[in-house]
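## Example pair
The file below holds two records. Each record gives the amino-acid sequence first, followed by its structure token line.
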Amino acid sequence: MPKLKASLSKKTNEKLLAIRPSAIRAFDEQVSNIPDILKLTLGEPDFDVPEIIKNAAITSIKENDSHYAASRGTTALRNAIKAFLQRKYHLTYDALNEIIVTIGATEALAATIATTINPGDEVLIPTPTFPLYEAIVKTYGGIPVLVNTATDNFILTANRLAQELAKHPQIKLVVLNFPSNPTGVTYTEPQLSEISSVLKEKDVFVLTDEIYSELTYDHKHTSIAKYLPNQTILINGASKAFAMTGYRIGLIAGPAELITEITKMHQFTITTPVNSSMAAATTAFLAGDIDSEKMKQSYLQRRNYLMEALDNLGLSYLLPKGAFYLFIKIPANYQTDDFKFALDLAKKGHVALVPGSVFGPGGEGFVRLSYAASQKKLEEAIKRIEKFILNN
């Protein structure tokens, strides 16, 4: 087993050295060895990929679709994405020049942030939110401006946005994620219109991560790209809507001039996505609506079950209008120490939830529960949580 030469141990990327590994994964690993642990930690759909989608991947392999595809993705998949975005969100993009297929939404985020910021540029990130945004910004030398939205019902209001842009004139990029991981909160059309009115007056890019767009419960999802197409880089993918996390298919859509630049970073990083995955995703975006809707209805039933159960336990939470997470306020006797509560629940109650603090300012005093799990598993989790609370 080779051991790194001691004198080289601190000579890697200084910015990366200062960043800790994923706190969500770290906590998940920390509690995974607890006997009989029931984990509701990761955002991993528990459904199987629909047969029609799997068959498309199998056909691709059997037909020896094994050579390099175009870096931006196959024409068939980009046309399918174009049709999907038009059908679902009334967005119009040119398949050849305004869409890139990526290795999941994660690569889409990295390529976009790397392209749009220079070292020292500021990036506005509303929190609590997925920690990856801040980590990527720091990796590329950007300065995260974390905006705690807890006092505004966990959304970035137009007024707050205007205030932050005035305080930080060096902001180059604004990051949005809705429906939100971890809160499940999303934006209405009037709220997006108001935010867009503020952003139109500023020379800033808008990175909008809408990977949970097909899992919106109380109203149809609207993309901010509808209001701000000439500044917006839209990120989405197949992972959550079609339970295709392992296929690693994401997408970027935006103005052609910007897509051309993002493509360079995309090419230098991964060259091209995987052919069989792209074949599967082509079918998903063209013919996966019915299966996706069935999954959403299952998530909705689980959400409603959990909300009633938590009400009966006297635990408060944010009303999730999308995604598959519940952001739950921890019991008062723990004050805001969500790490202690999460560890106690894991060790004594054998249920693992993610501490809210890992999602940034505003997450303190909460835990995130992922209901991308079977009804049976959720019912068992509630029994264990109830027993834990009664004994603590």
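Second record, same layout:
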Amino acid sequence: MMRKLLLATLALGALIGTAKADPDNFDQVARGRYLATAGDCVACHTGSAGPGVAHAVPDLESSYGYAGGRAIETPFGQIKAANITPDRETGIGTWTADQFYTAMHHGQRPDGTHLYPAFPYTAYTNVTRDDSDAIFAYLRTLAPVQNAVDRNTLPFPFNIRMAMIGWNMLFFREGTFQPDTTKSAEWNRGAYLVEGLGHCGSCHTPKNFLGGDGDHLAGGELQAWYAPSLTADKRLGVGDWSEDEIVEYLRTGRNERAAAAGPMAEVVQYSTAKMTESDLKAMAVYLKQPAQAVQQASAPAPLAADNAQMRMGRAIYEDGCKACHTDSGQGIARMFPRLAGSQSVQQPGSESILRAVLQGAKAATTDMAPTGPAMPAFGWRLNDEQVAAVATYIRNSWGNAAPAVSTEDARKMRDRLADVVE
């Protein structure tokens, strides 16, 4: 009798653990699919789909888009994204809703293993239990894909996961998002998306030498790109952008000022371009009205036009750049990005502009803007001194002002691009 009671209790516990995430509840599943899109899950969790299966292209309609295996570059080494299809051997098929929420909210796997913040639980901790359950319900509807992913690829000593206990004590603030009652519902929705599911700070907040966050959304180097500031700073952030310009950029991947490329192109293509207009507007409202006032960064003095590096840079720009970006740096609206007054090219770090010059870049393609203009690579025809010169010229012309780029900066970027993970 006691044995039957115990078995019944365990069965009831298992039902309670999964009851909130019901793959047969189509309203919940549809909401979970949308929330997974808002969280841009597919961009990281795509990858190889098992032996004999070609590399998967991120696709919201395909389970292979969630089969894991993509290598994510961090300052401490590469981490491969997990398989989050409901495969019972290599995915999350044996997980309960409670265990999924623990991973999202606390950063721990069902066996208690600590996750690395390459999985942005530091942002996902803001996600509500209902939303976590909805995402889990959606993932359970995917076809299981057997794809064993090596989750321990960091070198010693970073492969010691117990060290995450100390890291979490220093840098992780657990807690579900709490609305600000002094703000509008729209503002709070934007805050929830930016700080939670959107995990914008994971890229756009600078990191210290231990990988902890610095000034929130102030921009920083990431995977050989420089994620620009998203603060209300007018020169470096989005303070000079209108809400409509932010919405257009997130919906189409471009506006009159800029075009999304690199990791941001993936964010647009697989996430924000598929979100509702009201959610994009809420994000814009939140970014334009930050919770705390932003100290406007003082601009450095631009280099003089007769500076030797500026003269060299101008000659290179006139020969290879102005046909698209124009002599005035205004570019072609929604086609070739404006360089004059560009927040991106004036960031403290020159990584993005160096990468674009050396390797080229391709803008995002979306339903609203299906043609993705591309910039050719110039690394094959320009030496490091010339690359640094044209980057410096762009960063200090048409009213722009930013630190000069050195030949050594260009050399380091060229070397790094030989091994960078896409």
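Notes on the second record: The domain at 308-417 is CATH 1.10.760.10 (Cytochrome Bc1 Complex; Chain D, domain 2). The chain has three domains: 20-171, 185-288, 308-417.
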